[in-house]
């Protein structure tokens, strides 16, 4: 189905949302990507990716009910993976694993 495949950054952001669980908001996602993936992305890129994922139905968003002083009293916009997002993650993982396992001449495909 058109528009439901994950791009590389979309997959990465979706995986990070899953890892952060109840603390998945823009800045936390950006910081996680920088720390764990050693990749620098702008906060606007993270938000644009989250918006695309939400349009595809892979994440949903809600405002945190507890605003903090450090954000000038503004609540965080938190993201959660939907059932469709989970299916997309599993599909992408399975597709990649299948493709990796069928590469004929790479030594890492052989059993140790």
From TrEMBL:
InterPro entries assigned:
Tscrpt_reg_PadR_N, WH-like_DNA-bd_sf, WH_DNA-bd_sf
UniProt-recorded name of the protein: PadR family transcriptional regulator
- Give the top-rank taxon of the lineage listed in the UniProt record for this protein: Bacteria
Show the coiled coil region(s).
Answer: none
Matching entries from Pfam families are given as: PadR (PF03551)
- Domain Transcription regulator PadR N-terminal intervals: 17-90
């Amino acid at each position: 189905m058109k528009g439901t495949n994950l791009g590389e950054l979309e997959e990465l952001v979706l995986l990070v949302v899953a890892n952060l669980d109840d603390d998945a908001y823009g800045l936390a996602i950006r910081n996680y990507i920088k720390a764990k993936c050693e990749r620098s992305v702008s906060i606007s890129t993270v938000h644009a990716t989250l918006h695309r994922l939400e349009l595809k139905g892979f994440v949903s968003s809600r405002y945190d009910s507890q605003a903090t002083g450090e954000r000038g009293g503004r609540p965080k916009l938190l993201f959660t993976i939907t059932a469709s997002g989970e299916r997309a993650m599993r599909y992408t993982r399975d597709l990649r694993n299948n493709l990796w396992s069928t590469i004929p001449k790479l030594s890492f495909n052989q059993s140790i």
